[in-house]
Amino acid sequence: MEATLSTVAGLLATLSKTPSYAEVQRVGGQLLELGQPPTGWASAATIRIGIVSSFTAAPLAPPLAVECHRLGIWPSVYVGGYGQFRQEVLDRDSELYRGEPDIVFLIAELEAVVPVEDDSRAPAAIVNRAVAELVTLVDAFKSRSQALLVLFDFNVPVRFPFSIGTDPSGVLHQEVNAKLREALAGDPQVRIFAYDALCAHHGKERSSNAKMRRLGDIRISDSLLPAVARKCAGYVRALKGIVAKCLVLDLDGTLWGGTVGEDGPHGVRLQDRGSGSEYYEFQRAIAELRRRGVLLAVNSQNHIEDVRPILRDHPYCVLREASFAAVRVNWLDKAVNLRSIAEELDLGLDSLVYLDDDAVQRAWIRRALPEVAVYDLPDDPAEYVAFLWELVDFESLTVTNEDRARASLYADARKRKDLAATAPSREDFIASLCVHLVIGRMTEREIGRVAQLTRKTNQFNLTTRRYSDAEIAALMRRPNMLIYTLEVADVFGHCGLVGVIIIEVRDDRAAIDTCLLSCRALGLRIEHVFLGEVAEDVKRVGVKTLTGEYLPNNRNSAAATFFESCHFQQAGESCLGRSRWMLSLVQWHHDRSALHRVTWRNEDDRGQCL
Amino acid sequence: MIDSLNGRLRDVFKEVFGVDDIDDTVSVGTLARWDSLAHITLMLAVETEFDVRITTDEAIGMTDVKAIRAVLREKLCV
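The joint structure predicted for all components is written out below.
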């Protein structure tokens, strides 16, 4: 394994900073030739990718392999036969399905789906036929595979000049794209890749290369390919739960121009137009990330008294004190600050992305804290916004209501911590919060959030089993699986859906497949109450023995004693940190907590199943 | 001029195929990695390195080092 790892590292190291098409094809090809991961490689860090297309899509595989290896994920990539996307999807025994992919990219041209004579019109008959064809393919795919299907939308062709007075080209493509989005919205197993937008962003003219098309029917140009591969890797990241959660920002030179310590709060460059507007626009873009659920933090070497007037009163400072979940403005080592930010927000260092215009600081953080993602900001601040939109670190497959509310949830959490510091005892503190647990069987609309929690939760996650939306939907359909969800509210606000327990029932035995609680609800003995309630529920179903296991990941050591604290007996010896636990429900009865209020969302659900 | 053409062509082959030594006999038939996709990569790399445009017909014929050199000589007038 060591030898293979150094081979991978060696190959990646041969790539220059902005590698040419040929370099990436060669190195990526060599990475793919390594085949299966070495023995001992964690299966969680592998991904099986399928690519099916209406043209030659093979050049996408090497750059995608490079991107995956850079994430520490071992990819195997299957590229379907030339133009065979239909057969690959429809044929139950196709190579595509035999490879048991985790994720499949379907890239078709509209002309390969329906005959296109005049794309300046969008007659309903053709639009509907195209959408129906694709929905049929999607349905067939879903009945044959649990993989995430990423469907590229259609690149709207642009032809100039077109005569004044006639409709522009690509009206048909636009209409099909819109209808397709509508038809597949909310499907947990399908995502639409905004390929048309990516081509437009890259430049439509540069998005295809006539020579590549003529010689090999390759319809994604050499210059566009890296961006496509990066976006595809974004899906891989999200599927694997590698999602950064917090953007940590320097101030001087990053959020505004100049140095506040020298130029004063009114001297820094920050304007809505003209010079300084690059920072204003960058801040607006960051604010948009925050609205999508990304936490923000400040890490700056400054006097807080200098910085505060800007964050509080500067008319064009979009980001205010309250926008940040954590603020470190001091003269400490920035690496020390990053550590304490991670601690305060209860995040791993690998959940942080750090942006600083100072190359020396960046180099230092890279060395001191290799887990933190540190990117080089462009030299010209005018390019900051474009740079930010290139980042795929925060991509997640679903943006849930919890995500949108996250930033304020952390502000609530800060108030909770303050209260904890003043309460005389842990019990008094919990009681003073008036914690209210709402428990229920998972409903269809909770699938996205439940799957997301399985992918993102590390700290209190007893088994760390990662599930896609489709897999959770499939578990829900299995009659012997019980999926419980937990919502929590307290005096400071509503935490939303924060806990999941998945139980597999076999006759009078039940096994805990998954038991997790989001870190923002930890420390209030909520997990004990949740499991107690669930145990009581399965007892009503007729279960006599409840078993559970603890599988260590690198962040959940605090959960190792959880079963013991819930009065489970250990079954057998621990091995490699793993332990198995058992609770006999026959004599057991659930002590309702006096400190928490518990409500079952639907009383009729209780004890119902199978 | 010819020497620099040969040197630059060697760089292109190193970039595309990772091979160090090439002579006139190297062709689609003798280099295992030189398949149809790699051929397109090679043509793009040649265009970039020598700042020339290669037509589709020319590309189809450039299947050994000798032919590639001949096309380049003509385009670069060396």
